[in-house]
């Protein structure tokens, strides 16, 4: 996929439990988190593999296979975890 402009493609990490019917029951009080899988040419502070937190209802949600992806504007990214933060957040 080619990401354009100041957009960021993020693979969303779903947190929560799965019901017997296979529905993911997410924890509502946390910001959504994901891994950057692509950035547009106008995004300079993010790279593939960065773990980010983003605005809950931001962007457009798409599914590719079993993956849930979000196409976000770069300003909807609230936090970027660095290596020492990743150990604490997992």
List keywords for this structure.
mainly beta; 10 Kd Chaperonin, Protein Cpn10, Chain O; 1 helix; 8% helix; 90 residues
According to CATH, the fold-level topology is 10 Kd Chaperonin, Protein Cpn10, Chain O
The biggest sheet, with number of strands, parallel, antiparallel or mixed sense and barrel status, is: 6 strands, antiparallel
The helix/strand order is EEEEEEEEH
Which regions contain 5 or more consecutive residues with pLDDT less than 50?
none
CATH architecture tag: Roll
Could you characterize what this model shows?
This protein has 1 helix and 8 strands, in the order ββββββββα. It has one helix at 83-89; strands at 7-13, 16-18, 24-26, 33-39, 51-54, 60-64, 67-73, 77-81. Strands 6-7-1-4-5-8 form a 6-stranded antiparallel beta sheet. Strands 2-3 form a two-stranded antiparallel ribbon. The radius of gyration is 13 Å and the shape is globular.
Summarize the structure.
The chain has one helix at residues 83-89; strands at residues 7-13, 16-18, 24-26, 33-39, 51-54, 60-64, 67-73, 77-81. By secondary structure, it is mainly β. A hairpin with a 5-residue loop joins strand 2 (16-18) and strand 3 (24-26).
